[in-house]
Design goal:
CATH class: Mainly Alpha
CATH topology: Ferritin
Number of strands: 0
Oligomer: single chain
Helix content: over 70%
CATH architecture: Up-down Bundle
Structural class: mainly alpha
Number of helices: 6
Distance between the termini: 57 Å
Shape: elongated
Number of domains: 1
Length: 211
Amino acid sequence: MISFAVQETSSANRNQTKNRKGTKTKTLQDLFLDELADMYDAENRLVKALPKMAKAATDGALREAFQSHLSQTEGHVSKVEEVFAACDAKAKGKKCEAIAGLLEEGDDIASENKGSPTINAALISAAQKVEHYEIASYGTLCEWAKLLDNSTASELLGEILEEEKAADAALTNLARSRSNESAMEGEETTEGYQRQRSRGMPARSSRLRVT
């Protein structure tokens, strides 16, 4: 059982515990670089995933949004590399389990909704989960950079953070103005079709208006 109770120990005992475990005390700089490696991996994964999301989208505006964010994401990879340089560290990635999981879920959502009027709403849902993770991560990294008095890193991370927020807002606008409504129209069309079939009436063809 794990206990979070505070226990008083002498300095000698603490040192002995440290030596027995052979661990190194982490600093904020260590934590910062570790989380930065996580986001470096995340951005590189997204560079590969966004073209697939754009291809899966049936709405032209959403497809264009994914393509536009791909260009931004490629820029984020370069900026994260600059942040590493500003810390006198080599750029390296550490598998981002969160983004890997979210992208896998996105693949499942796209497959489940392929050919359905819900596809674009589903893709936006998957994309915004990723955006929210990135916003939280870059917000934290930006604050840590300020505490570490690394103005270059803070500025670069702040730029990425604002672009992620803008991308999330754009997806929200698309969902509200296009994709959610289209998904609802598809739901109504399906229900109408089922009612007509139950009454023995011929079903009218309906085409989803997607531009």
